[in-house]
Amino acid sequence: MKFLVVEDGFLNRHHLCNLLSPHGTVDVAIDGHEAVEAVRLALEKNEPYDLVCLDIIMPGMDGNDALKKVREMEAESGYGPGEGMKILMTTASDCRKRVMEAFRDQCDGYLIKPIWEEALLEAIQDAGLTVG
């Protein structure tokens, strides 16, 4: 599997990479702009990510804006709703407004930090992916 971890905090980024690395290749972006660029390159190579873990609250382009852009790029690449990458939003905040906005923009789930391995694996499975 191919993962993209988008997280501005070093410790959270490192933790997610450690949880995902036994299950596949992990790329990293530190903000929404880098995430959009990583997704653009992956789509151009016709090698999209299986899963993107996208932090909601980041400086510059936040996770919600990056999510919208990623879904736009997928549509431009011919992916219909539900056919593209699985995207799990991550947040340290229990801000329901931001989480609901992410679901409107077609995220596949969300996780509250700190992220535990069991919760991550369950969210991945709920999104329709299998890790083993």
Descriptive report:
It is a single chain. The protein is α/β, with parallel strands linked by helices and 132 residues long. The protein has a domain at 2-21 and 30-48 and 56-87 and 95-115: Rossmann fold. Helix content is 43%, strand content 19%. The protein is built from five helices and five strands. A five-stranded parallel β-sheet has the order 2-1-3-4-5, with helices on both faces. Helix 4 (96-104) links the parallel strand 4 and strand 5. The longest helix has 14 residues, at 63-76. It is globular. The model has no long low-confidence stretch (mean pLDDT 94).
Question: Keyphrases for this structure?
Answer:
single chain; 132 residues; alpha/beta; Rossmann fold; five-stranded parallel β-sheet; 5 strands
The major pleated sheet works out as:
5 strands, parallel
Q: Which architecture name of one domain does CATH use?
A: 3-Layer(aba) Sandwich
Distance between the termini: 10 Å
CATH superfamily of one domain: Response regulator
At the first level of CATH, the class of one domain is Alpha Beta
Rg of Cα set: 13 Å
Which structural class matches the secondary elements? alpha/beta
- Report the order of strands and helices: EHEHEHEHEH
Strand order in the largest sheet: 2-1-3-4-5
Number of helices: 5
Find the count of extended strands (DSSP E, 2+ residues). Answer: 5
CATH topology of one domain: Rossmann fold
Percent helix range: 40-55%
**Regions with little confidence, pLDDT below 50 for 5+ residues:** none
Molecular shape:
globular
Beta percentage is 15-25%
- Look at the structure and give the mean pLDDT: 94
